[in-house]
Design goal:
This protein has one domain (2-114): Cytochrome Bc1 Complex, Chain D, domain 2. Helix content is 59%, strand content 3%. It contains five helices and two strands. Strand 1 (56-57) and strand 2 form a beta hairpin. Helix 1 runs antiparallel to helix 2 (28-46), helix 2 crosses helix 5 and helix 4 crosses helix 5 (100-114).
Length: 118
């Protein structure tokens, strides 16, 4: 039952952020902030399994020890999207569970929060 509630809460958080993105915003900075918020939500709780379970990223408060530490790796957005689509090592593909928009938001968040966006 708890699993169902957590999954429902994840869906609700992601849906609320996507709805905000769909409504449009006043500026590019607002668009980026909304994209970053969606990416962070997906990283911490929205993706199944959540990225934070395996990866370390200071901005997200994530201390996973299975996958690479993003603060050290500093991947670019294209690297993140490629890993999300195809999976890599022990990481599964998210192609069937995340939309292209969600993958772009997650890639933007990880690359910017880790210092990989240049």
């Amino acid at each position: 039952m708890l699993d169902r509630l957590v999954t429902s809460a994840r869906r609700g958080a992601v849906a609320a952020i996507l709805a905000g993105l769909a409504c449009g915003t006043a500026s590019g900075a607002d668009d980026d902030a909304a994209l970053m918020a969606l990416g962070k939500t997906l990283f911490t709780v929205g993706a199944v399994p959540p990225c934070a379970l395996c990866h370390t990223l200071k901005d997200a408060g994530a201390t996973g020890a299975i996958g690479p530490a993003f603060d050290d790796l500093q991947p670019g957005p294209d690297q993140v999207i490629a890993a999300l689509k195809s999976g890599i090592g022990a990481m599964p593909s998210y192609r069937g569970s995340l939309s292209d928009e969600q993958m772009r938001a997650l890639a933007r968040y990880v690359s910017k929060a880790s210092g990989g966006a240049r």
